[in-house]
Amino acid sequence: MSKFEIHMQELKNFWDRHPKAFLSGQSFSQLSCKGRKELSIIYFHLAKAIIENSDSNTTKENQLKALDYLNTSISLDAIYNSKAYIMIAKIYAAIGNPICAYANILIATVLIKTDQDAKFFIQQCKKLPFPPPQKIWCSDEDVNELSLHWLREDKVLILRPGTYTATFPICEKSVVIIGIAPPICICSKATLSMDKCVVANSTGDNGGILIANDSKAKITNCNIYNIGLSALEVRHGSSLYVENNEIHHSSRGVTAWLNAKEIILINNDIYNNLSEGILVHGYREPASSKEFNKFLHDYIHDSFGASIKPPPPRDSYTKPSQTLAVLQNNRILKNGSFGVSVDFGANVRMENNEIADCITSGCIIKGGTDADILNNNIHNNRTYGIEVGVNYHGKVVIKNNSIHSNKRGNITCLALVEMIDNEIGVDYLDESNDQNFINFNISSNRPGIHLFYEESLLYAISNTYGFNLLKNFTTKVTSTTGTTIFDKKISIFLGGINDLSNIVETVYDLTMSLESHTNYYNINLLFTINNFNPIVLSRNLVLLEMINRLPDPKPPSSLNEKGIYGQWNKNFVIGVMEILSVWAEKVISDDTYNNLNSCIHSLIESLENKINIKTNKCNNDSSNKKLPSWISFKHSSNTEFFILQTLQYWKNNSLSAFALNWDANHLFSYTMDRKFSPEIEILRNLKERYYVDEDIKEYACCQLPISNQARSYINVYSNTLDKPNVTMLTVPAMEYNVSPTSCIFRTFQVNTENSEDSDDDDDDQPLTLYDYLLLTLLPKLASLRASLHKTSSVQIQVKPVLGDIIDTLLCRLPPSVRFNAIDCSNLADHVSLLNIIFAAAPKLKDNSQLTLQLIKVHNPSDNSMKKFVEQQLGLSLNILSKLTGITFVNAYSKDYAVYVTWKFDIAKDKEEKLDTLINGVISVASACCTAHNKRIYGLSINIIVRLFQIMNIRFSEEIMAQLLQSLFTSKGFNKYIPNFAMHLVELKTFMTLHFCLPFVSKLKELNDLKVPIARYSLKWETNKIVKEKMHTLGWYFGKHRKTVCPKTEMIWLRLIKPIKPITHTSNFTTKKNKRNNYTSKNREPNYYYFDSVSISSIKAPTIMISFHLPIPFYDNHKDWILEFNIGSRVILSSAEMITLSKVTQKNVCHNMWDSETEYKEYDEVNVCKRCRKYTTKICSKCKSVYYCSKNCQEDDLKRHSKVDCIKVSSGM
Question: Comparing C-alpha atoms, which of 663, 669, 654, 670 is closest to residue 600?
């Protein structure tokens, strides 16, 4: 073993003896003095081993790694490993930090008694930006308290641990103070004045400068950086004045808490700190907040949710009435949490500051705070510019600020705020290259469907158990001529996929079932995976690549390992553990992060190569790497672009673990406090079943602690989790937005058989829930690995398809593509059960099945399963079967969901009576015309078009003609559905587009289907909240505020008939008009409803909607008034009197509303018209078509000049 490996083993042994010391991110506060010294020596030897094995070409990464070990060593014991200071000095010199190199060589000079005139020391003195003092003094190691009255000349002071008191001002002297054991503490009514000083490298559990117990400090023109805790901290009645300083690269910039009296910050640069730039905690929590947060006990939580127990004061102090903060002319930039966070009764005045590029919001105000926010420039923060939380009786005034270009929004408020003369600009997406990303807060409306996707949580982990999709599928195989090989292709569609659990279970179960057969089988599983979010598809491909890279699961025959994991190759177990971490945890280890990055990089290279070949953009520098054989982008021309972009964002914008969404760690309290929590229920049941004594809190909210059994088997040296799991970060915002109820134990059902085989006489460590989960997954991932490597009888290929599920099934996939099994997860909860089965069932092969989950129940329904399903449908199962041939197979309740299975028989049916069909269609239409607040979510009248399309295959043309004639007379729809006339225009519009068959257009009742259809759009400015903030902490705790948690709502448009002014006419004239001018228009309803409305809020507060109308209808109704609604909220009020005449006609003779049209208008606006590459260059003439280069523009000249542009500009 190398020296490094030997010392790493020592570190592991120390860890095993003191596991709790490592839980708080290497604070080591629980170690004894002897333990700290021992650990300090281990880290010193690790660094020494790296340095001794290095040469002149040593990478900066190795230098920084050694430096990290050395800094940890001296933070544990500043005196014992004195040789560390020479090593530190040489590393700092090598990386170009002369001040730190000088400071450390000085310490070494004193502690080791080396010659200060040595060549290295002289070199560092020459590199300093100031002339160093010639005299050096080090405090006596026996003196713990010393007066500095003798400081009358320029000196370098090297101070050992102790308390030092200045009895008179130190003025006009060049004094360098180097503390061997920081920090600087000013307490007990002391006064500190610092000017032109450097305070740096107080790492670990150490702060920079602490002002406490009625003390005062003035700090000007200083550089304070690389501090382990807060660079500046004020508490217990103390005051701080800070001007013209740089405060950066520390854990936090400035902290005022625990009854601090006052802080004044003027003209400072506060940047690149890991958490807040400035934290002001008033320490006066409102009574209602205390009641709400009583579970927090006496702890304070930082912005990441970590608990902080307040330290007691050293002496008595004067408690101020309120903590005051004045922030003027500061630049608060690129901090890892909020730029400014003010909480619990503080009073802050922020004026003329710039707050930008912070990982969460620029500024957050909450907890009863009084705040005046004046004349600030707040921009380009990753969530909001200003966030006002629950503020109780606090008063907030936001005046004359420029707030713009913040990613999630510029201002969000959960409390009353006084807004005066602010310039609130456009959102982030308008001003960056990130506009290339699809904003899926856009409805997608096509024949017979209605979808509206709001921004929601990322379901990276499935919330129901995975299951074998082919459980009821008979694997009938055909023998290949002249061989005993049986081949079979099975195609499976996974709509709305969250994770790979169903693929894992299907492959494993099928593999196990074939092992008992004597013949050789070759089963090819073709999985088409679909989701409207490229993050989900990208994450699943990365996980599959990690599984594909797993080593052989069988251990070498020469090894005879004992223990529960002894039957597996050690490296295979490590790989599965890393996959499990990426699948289930939001923060991962260094090794896992490196493996994850490698997989992402590999996929990026292969995708770039594929796209370059497709677009003829290959050059000599291009990678020749090909996509793995198990990936195919057939049927999805644009999916690979969006997946590539997502992967590139993850690779190029990796953030520290501190960048994760600030409120995520609070959510366990929400989980525990809910009346019903499936994940907690499952974990409790597992504890009882396996007699496991563990805290289930450790497994909730995307946590997965590794067991001692697993760690000891694979010899893992470090369990420090400090890297972000980028696959759980949203793109492009790079925020952690995973559902708080996510738990891997809701995804995989633990194999109960493992408990019987786990007893080992040589192993006295009890199994944990982690062990049971890992033992369950090892054989399943081994099967999936073999299928990816094509070394198994079951082989798989995955086809990602981006888009909403109904659009994919109806428009993106060729008509000839059918599936042996279709699973649509719980999408029926969001787009209605009828929409899903009408789109999915016709894509089934003969005798195949469709599976749907309805995640709507905590307990089995009181009614029968059939009754429950009929309630979700809005009609009887018998009617559905007679109309469409879609038949109910079975339904059962499991895992807090109802699973429903369907079959589809397209065969013509000539026996059904016409009256039965009429009544059935009317029952469907009735469900679609119900008032929006009572309607089954997702239904619209256009579903009738899809119903007619299916029925037209099943029934003869004669029956269909009679059916349509009957429905569209006065004795049909109008007789049984009172408000049907209000939906008739929209129904006929989409019948014209998608069901205008020759025999239909010949019917006199439908002769108006021959009119041309156009698409119309309207833009306006709104001050309404269009998107519910379902991802905020306030939303989860809505029940505490007695509010109803919102769900995604339907969008709809109402066209209102104008009220004609009353004119004075004779009775004779009035009667004559009634008798002679009673036209069809006079018989119109007062309203028309349109559900197929597309909305784009990408450029909010500018809202754009678009919809279809017959052109003659538009011409005759230009004076009708538009009203636009989302659920029960009116977004565009009729009071604004915007008439139909204000809309813009988009497409005349538009005969198909397909995916290409919609993506072009909203999502591919920045795609080169010629090669499909993303670009920001636009045609200077028409201002509507994009090209990546002049060559592409010239290649498209002929088409472009005739279609898009009158004349193409000669330049871009």
Answer: 654
Give residues with Cβ within 8 angstroms of 958, minimum separation 6: none
DSSP-derived letter for residue 819 is E
Spell out the residues 6+ positions from residue 954 whose beta carbon is closer than 8 angstroms to its own.
Answer: 884, 885, 906, 907, 908, 909
If you average pLDDT over residues 72-96, what whole number do you get?
Answer: 78
Contacts of 341 (CB under 8 A, 6+ apart): 276, 278, 279, 280, 303, 363, 364
What does DSSP assign to residue 912?
Answer: S
- Could you tell me the pLDDT band of residue 364, with boundaries at 50, 70 and 90? very high
Beta bridge pairs of residue 1144: 1017
Task: Concatenate the DSSP letters of all residues of 691-725 into one string.
Answer: T----GGGGSSS--PPPHHHHHHHT-------EE-
Q: What is the DSSP letter of 1159?
A: I
Contact 721, 715 (CB under 8 A): no
Give Cα separations from 958 to 914, 944, 962 (angstroms): 11, 19, 6
Token reading at 924: 């469907």
pLDDT of residue 137: 59
Q: Three-class SS of residue 781?
A: helix
Specify the residue for token string 């509206």.
452
- Return left, alpha or beta for 1065; rule: phi > 0 is left, psi -120 to 50 is alpha, else beta: beta
Which residues are registered as beta bridge partners of 386? 363, 411
Q: How far is CA 632 from CA 639, 801, 822, in A?
A: 10, 10, 19
504 by DSSP, 3-state: which? helix
List the one residue out of 464, 607, 630 whose CA is nearest residue 547. 630
Is residue 62 over pLDDT 70?
Answer: yes
List Cβ neighbours of 566 (8 Å cut-off, separation of 6 or more): 555, 560
Record the tokens describing residue 1020, joined without a space.
Answer: 């306006």
Phi, psi (rounded to 5 degrees) for 20: -70, -20
Name the helix (H) or strand (E) containing 1102: strand 1102-1110
- pTM of this prediction? 0.61
The secondary structure of residue 875, as a DSSP letter, is S
Q: Are 805 and 824 in contact (CB under 8 A)?
A: yes
Q: How far is CA 1145 from the centre of its chain?
A: 37
* The two three-digit tokens of residue 1056, written as one number: 């209102």
CA 908 to chain centre: 47
Distance CA 434, CA 430 (A): 8
Count CB atoms within 10 A of the CB of residue 759: 9
- The pairing of strands 1087-1090 and 1051-1056 is antiparallel
pLDDT value at 722 more than 90: no
